Amino acid sequence: MGAKELSNEVSQTLSEGNVLNQKVLYLCGNDANYTLTQWAIWMSGHIAVPLSPLHPQNLLEYYANDSNAKLIVTTSEYADLIQRVSKNCKTKLLVLDDKLRQNASQMNPVKQSDMEGGLAPDFYNKSNAMILYTSGTTGQPKGVVLSHKNLVSQITCLIDAWKWSEKDTLLHTLPLHHVHGIVNALLCPQYIGAKCINTNPDDRRISVYMAVPTIYSRLITEHQKVFSSDSKMVEYIRTTLKNKLRLMVSGSAPLPATVYEKWFEISGHKLLERYGMTEIGMCLSNEYDSDRTPGYIGVPLPGVSVRLVRKIDDGEDNYLNLLESTNVKGVVNTNITNNADSESNPVGELQVKGDNVFREYYNKPQATEQEFTIDGWFKTGDISEYSLKEKKFKILGRQSVDIIKSGGYKISALSVETQILEHPAIADCAVVGLKDDEWGQKIVALVVLKPKTETFNIEEFNNWAKSRMAGYCIPKEIKIITSIPKNAMGKVNKKELVQSLCA
């Protein structure tokens, strides 16, 4: 069975006649099943909603209910879990045969007839392709609706900027429910006709690798532990990586300068940093042929416009535009519009426009409206600085302390707090992110225990938390305190809390 046959099976299982644009959730491993399922959903005219095995059952059920999914596709590996989700959400279920992946993984030439299928181009030009869930400062995760036009824009700008070709081979080690793993590392090579290795890298002719800073940090630790005492092996690794790979990319979280420098020492590669979000794909990147400086995320990608703004304190959604930068067909034009001190670097909230920017949060018009300015710019919520010397942007941090970026994931501190407060021994808590070289930010929970609680076992808490939240949301550190300082309105000043923890 190929993508065409699976597409027919998806359509038949939905049994919706000629109704298109149904939401189809899918949970597959990092192998051919994932790609075939994604293609089949699109070929049959529906909207793909990828799930993650890192997420507990209650979160998967939230995604199914929130997206109004009509079908869930999975493999035998996850069948037991997804059967429970399907039953509780009253959603149809399709479990793929393991032979599908085995057949697709064989290195046989692909026939043209196997690739034929799908609907008319006009349908895809006007239709939504995917819903990816992302955390916000309040409430449950929101479904980011990406159209086929959004995806094509995001893919083509990266192919142009990062010099993709059909001769490339990428080693894929990223999550496939995240824009980094889906767009940058999977759809780009598929679009250009390059090779993507999702399992054991038996093909050593890798030319492209992408990862989050946490992965590079762990590779550095492993290199130091296993190879640092063997000078010949150290030289062999550096020579091989430098000569065989043409591009190594880091993103989804700030890259510490120490990691950048150590990886250059190990591999001979200056990691290419870029910046993006689920809602916009990638919007800034260091140029391929540039001399990369650690901490800088580059310039707008082709077809993308960005600006730095400062909020005007007039009670309205008005901004002072400090700088605007646009990339038209590879030519970047940056215009400083308001800067009181011409010698200082402009600093403001980064806002984005372009065909890469998402359509809406699914079924949440008010939340969507709040994330866009009156004149149509998407508010990233990140504070950025433009270097007049380097002529590049860098990210200084989030406007909101309630968004934590840990291990490449964007995590809502409030959502984690809500889960922790359900623990029978916990009376109050505050969750913050502290700077960390391995994780970017590590999640720290300050916890107040209920009266008469004699003991609190961290290991037991972690086991309890695993059934309620994704592993990357579980605090790396828990501090037991007697009370959490709050102001007269009962609010926690998290900026002061972080400063006190770092003191």
Q: Can you give the helix content as a percent range?
A: 25-40%
Rg measurement, Å: 23 Å
Mean pLDDT: 88
Number of helices: 16
Give me the count of strands.
25
CATH topology of the domain at 3-119: Rossmann fold
Going by helix content, strand content and strand pairing, the class is alpha/beta
Largest sheet: 7 strands, mixed
Shape: globular
Q: How far is the first residue's CA from the last residue's CA?
A: 60 Å
Strand order of the largest sheet: 8-7-9-10-11-12-13
**CATH class assignment of the domain at 3-119:** Alpha Beta
| Poorly predicted spans | 107-115
What oligomeric state do the depicted chains represent? single chain
CATH architecture of the domain at 3-119: 3-Layer(aba) Sandwich
In what range is the share of β-strand residues? 25-35%
